[in-house]
Amino acid sequence: MDLKELDLVDPHSHWYYQSKLEGVRRLLRNSTASAPSIVDIGAGSGFFSLALAADHSQARVMCVDPNYSATDLATTGQVQFVRSADSQELARADVMLFIDVLEHVDDARGLLAEYVDHASAGCRVVISVPAFMSLWSPHDDFLEHRYRYTLREIESVAEAAGLRIIEGRYLFASIVVPVWIIRRLKRSARPRSDLKPAPPALNALLRSVLKLEHRFLRTRVAGLSALVLAEVQEEAGGQADSE
After folding, report:
1. Does 87 map to a domain?
2. How far apart are CA 92 and CA 240, in angstroms?
């Protein structure tokens, strides 16, 4: 969860974060160790990795974000908040998360490779990015995004970084048309986040609709976010294996 949106909504109940979390959980289902080591790159609040850790009582979580203040840095139980991770810590990771991170940099392949080059073979990598430049809006300006990706574009970035694609899909496909219309109308507005608390009835409706989407509409056609599961290959993890 982006630190700039930390005070805007409660991710533990908001339809957007709950649906994205469900998408990540579904990608990783039956593919992680019983006590996984999770490294969350650009973690912000750590919402996604902490939720995954709650599914595994023995999980170890490292939230990495260079924007953490001195008061953010801490180790509590199974969770550690740090500004950077060394190669040995990365080599121990069973899962790396890049949730809404790569759209913030010009060299997405370089940032991805900076971490996965130290990972061990078999490490699962989950990537989420905002989709389609046609959906660009003041929301992207507010969050200082550099780019919005098609699914194939972000898969190509992952492959260029040495990863093998396991699965890719769009999220929020069922609401992409009304969101596209709204964002076209708001293109000239001042930069601000689109996230806001929804009325309880609307929040519940959207959560229900998106839950059905997870079950019945796993599409590579269109959506608001692109979500990819990839795997570190032998050659990508070679450096970490030799240390």
Report:
1. yes
2. 9
Overall size of the chain counted in residues: 243
CATH number (domain holding residue 49): 3.40.50.150
Q: Is residue 241 part of a domain?
A: no
The model's pTM is 0.91
197, 91 contact by CB (below 8 A): no
Give the Cα separation of 211 and 243 in Å (integer): 43
Q: How many domains does the chain have?
A: 1
**Hey, is 79 helix, strand or coil?**
strand
CA distance 129 to 178: 19
- pLDDT tens, position by position, 29-88: 877 767 789 999 999 989 999 999 888 878 899 999 998 999 889 888 789 999 999 999
User: What is the span of the domain harbouring residue 68?
Assistant: 3-234
Residue 116 within a domain: yes
Q: At what angle do helices 200-216 and 15-28 cross, to 10 degrees?
A: 20
At residue 129, the 3 state secondary structure works out as strand
60-64 and 79-82: which strand pairing?
parallel
